[in-house]
Amino acid sequence: MGLYRFATPVWTLTILAGALAVAALWDAERRPRPRALLAAGLALGFVLSLTGQHPKNQDWLDEPALSLCKVTHRFGGVFNGCAQRLAIHGRSVLLPDLGGTLLTSRLKVVDLAGLTDPVVADAYAAHDPTPYAPTSSTGPGPPSSTATMDG
């Protein structure tokens, strides 16, 4: 999957700025002909956008790459079941993609991709492969920041 999801704020801001610009042009122009041209241009852009995206949207609807339900069950429910069977409480799970895990997991979730964990993000930026290196001979140090549904 591409990293287009990170462009979401850009697209949202672009649509907002475009809508405000169109509204300003609409208010500034009192004559009917420029308004009609503006409305026709917007309608044309809308139709072209829909027709250009329809095949890709239909492909996605017919066969999604990975559903939220699968991610939620696999990385939330399965890890919860394993932790319960092993009587493990108050521990963490380290995952590269949180997906739907935070919706169901009762474990502390550390994001290895660094999107929600500042320690991992800083280590990634510094090219440090060991953000949670052992602090003593007793084992690894605790994560300083974890995401969890329990708080």
UniProtKB/TrEMBL annotation:
UniProt biased composition (Low complexity): 129-151
Spans annotated as Disordered: 128-151
Transmembrane stretches, start-end: 6-26
Keyword Transmembrane helix: yes
UniProt keyword list: Membrane, Transmembrane, Transmembrane helix
Protein name: Uncharacterized protein
Source species of the chain: Streptomyces mesophilus
